[in-house]
Amino acid sequence: MNCLSPSILAADFSILGEQIRQLDDAGAQYVHIDVMDGDFVPSISMGMPLIRSIRACTDRMFDVHLMVREPIRYLLDFAEAGADIITVHAEACTHLDRTIDNIKEMGLLAGVALNPSTPLETIRYILSKVDMVLIMTVNPGFGGQKLIPYTVDKIRELKQLLKKTQNKADIEVDGGVTLENVGTLLDAGANVIVAGSAVFQGEISENVSRFLNLLNA
Ligand code: DX5
Ligand code: ZN
User: Fold this and answer.
1) CATH class of the domain at 3-215
2) How far is the CA of 49 from the centre of ligand 2 (A)?
3) 40-92 pLDDT, tens per residue?
4) Conformation bin of residue 166: beta by default, left when phi > 0, alpha when psi is -120 to 50
């Protein structure tokens, strides 16, 4: 199934609860939550207290993207705050295998993210353990960037690899996704679509509906 995961990094934080309810009403399946530690990525964004307080606004899946070094230290905290899917960066985990195991042991869905320049080979041995692979289509750290074209080839390659190994993991894409390029990403094999600016700039409900029409086409 194709899912839309709007990134609240682009939301208006003064009315965050209201905007999350708008996403929910418009039919967006996930809420994408970008956690940045100011170390693995240059910026600092949001953490557990925020997730805990917006948990009351919606029953939609919380898709928590940890751009955090050694996230194994915080998995339990994010689970308790209300995460449903926890995605960690392969580049940020000394013990990626153990980190994935810990997420699964808590009964959550586990995702692994790759920066644009990180080869798929990096996740070869843990691919069968994860529920989702997040292909970063920009360098993580900021919203509102332009998609890096070569990452589309990587999505295609991953899709082929999953097919070959009969692996049903989701392919998520994140960064620079627009109504104009989402078709190309879906064709390449992505099925969980993150969009920040393209959802929150302008009319949220309208933007979500437009994305969902393309996702369901
Ligand atoms: C980037 C974040 C993205 C970001 C996407 O580091 O992981 O989720 O919010 O924002 P847009 O869609 O504006 O590129
Ligand atoms: Zn993200």
Assistant:
1) alpha beta
2) 18
3) 999 999 999 999 999 999 999 999 999 999 999 999 999 999 999 999 999 99
4) left
